[in-house]
Amino acid sequence: MKTESKLPIKEIILMIFSLIIAVLVVVCIMRLDNNTKLLLDECNEIKEQLALNAEKIEELNEKLGFIDQKIDSDFTVLKSQGDELIEHAVTSRGTAVRQYKKTLEIEKTYSDLLEEERKTRIDSSEFDLSIESKRKEAKKSFDKGQYSDALKNYREILEVNPSDNEVRLYKMLSLFYINRMDSTNYSEIQNDIKILKENGITDERINEAEQFIKQERNQE
Predict the structure, then answer these.
(1) DSSP 201
(2) pLDDT reported for residue 127
(3) Potential cystine with 174: which of 120, 135, 145, 151 (Cβ 3.0-4.6 Å)?
(4) What residue ranges of the chain have pLDDT lower than 70?
């Protein structure tokens, strides 16, 4: 009769326990693989995100660099314009000051001219009164037969106004009437007669003096 070999219960339990541990290990390994895969995927996503962020940061740096260049360029332009404005303001101020001084000089000159003109008018008015007074005095002397006094005043008036034909007429007549026979006066008298005729002055006394001098010179 054959006897059946039996495994000890202890070994059976050990085998079962080993099997369970093996299953658990396999399960853990599988779960670990899944977690590792998920972690790797997350890491890859993070790396991709970081790469995208790095590109964005690079673009941002480029934009910031462009902005810096623009700011530097604008600042240079503004500084240049500011310098030009300051220079223009200084030049304009200098021009304005010079113009103001020139205006003051012009005003002073104009005031001086006005004052001089005023004085001239006053002097001229006084002089006109003096000439008119001499004219009346000379005519009065002439009418009284005081030809020397009349001649003196008429000559003074002619020195100032040689174009006064009336004064020249009476000056010539005064010189003639002082002494008709004084031939030393004939040249001056004839010169006055010539000027009076050139200016269209006609008077019988002119002809009288002219004829008398011609006759006297013919007799000489």
Answers:
(1) -
(2) 58
(3) 151
(4) 1-7, 89-90, 108, 110-111, 114-115, 117-128, 220
Distance CA 83, CA 46 (A): 53
Q: How far apart are CA 213 and CA 200, in angstroms?
A: 21
pTM score: 0.45
Residue 69 has a pLDDT of 82
Distance CA 96, CA 99 (A): 5
Q: What is the DSSP string of 79-130?
A: HHHHHHHHHHHHHHHHHHHHHHHHHHHHHHHHHHHHHHHHHHHHHHHHHHHH
CA–CA separation, 206 and 183 (whole Å): 17
CA end-to-end distance (rounded Å), the chain: 222
Gap between the Cα atoms of 65 and 104, Å rounded: 57
* pLDDT for residue 187: 95
User: What is the rounded CA–CA span in Å between residue 21 and residue 100?
Assistant: 111
Helix (H) or strand (E) holding 208: helix 204-219
Longest dimension (CA), the chain: 224
pLDDT value of position 137: 96
CA separation for the pair 45, 39 (Å, rounded):
10
Cβ count near 153 (within 10 Å): 24
Tell me, what amino acid is at 3? Answer: T
Rounded Cα–Cα distance for residues 160 and 127 (Å):
10
Question: What's the confidence (pLDDT) of residue 2?
Answer: 46
- Is residue 167 within 8 Å of 151, Cβ to Cβ? no
